[in-house]
Amino acid sequence: MTVISSTKDVGALTLTFVAEFAAPVDRVWQVWADPRKLERWWGPPTWPATFDRYDFKPGGAVRYHMTGPDGTKARGWWAITDIDEPSRLEFDDGFAGDDGEPVDPEDVTHAVVTLEAAGPGTRMTTVSTFRSAEQLERMAEMGMEEGMRLAMGQIDAILAD
Fold first, then answer.
1. Do residues 60 and 48 lie in contact, with contact meaning Cβ atoms separated by under 8 Å?
2. E strand intervals along the chain
3. Averaged pLDDT, groups of 10, the chain, 161 residues long
4. Using omega within 30 degrees of 0 as the cis cutoff, is the peptide bond preceding 86 cis?
5. Residue 80: which region, alpha, beta or left (left: phi > 0; alpha: psi -120 to 50)?
6. Pick among 3.20.20.150, 3.30.530.20, 1.10.287.3510, 3.30.390.50: CATH of 3-160
7. pTM of the model
8. Family per UniProt (predicted)?
9. 39 with 51: CB under 8 angstroms?
10. Is the dihedral of CA 38, 146, 81, 30 positive or negative?
11. C-beta separation of 97 from 107 below 8 A
């Protein structure tokens, strides 16, 4: 199993995922750095992602959409705030409208992805920090925890290519 734990901490306003992969850190880094690889796993299997814009550098903008089984599109955006290749990525994340731009620039979560060697493989820790307990609960009710588990579960197949 790829995801070994997920922890919702309402007091700290965080949702943390820990996953391990049987690949070195630099290969796991590529599932974040390469938008063609990223779109193979970002989003649950029934909601594949397409990255329309991917400016992978600090200050860079990312725009994407996920397409549901009935063709419904859910759009999102990232603002990359920091990159320390190949071990750390930070970005702000939010919902976007049909134009790909933020619906509410204040409705943001901040994600920190850390990759570290774990034996012959890699441990990936992803911490999403929310602005309020209400935002965290709303995202949990939308299925964020299960969606991320399903999404991260697709990474092993990408690393096997």
1. no
2. 3-9, 14-21, 49-54, 61-67, 73-84, 88-96, 108-118, 121-129
3. 90 97 97 97 94 97 96 96 98 94 92 96 97 94 91 95 88
4. yes
5. beta
6. 3.30.530.20
7. 0.94
8. Belongs to the AHA1 family.
9. yes
10. negative
11. no
Instruction: Name the amino acid, one letter, at 2.
Output: T
> Among 52, 46, 96, which Cα is nearest to 67's?
46
Mapping DSSP to helix (H, G, I), strand (E, B) and coil, where does residue 93 land? strand
Q: Which residues contact 38 (CB under 8 A, 6 or more apart)?
A: 31, 32, 49, 51, 54
d(C-alpha 146, C-alpha 63), whole Å: 22
The confidence score (pLDDT) of residue 61 equals 96
Residue 82, token pair as written in the block: 């920091």
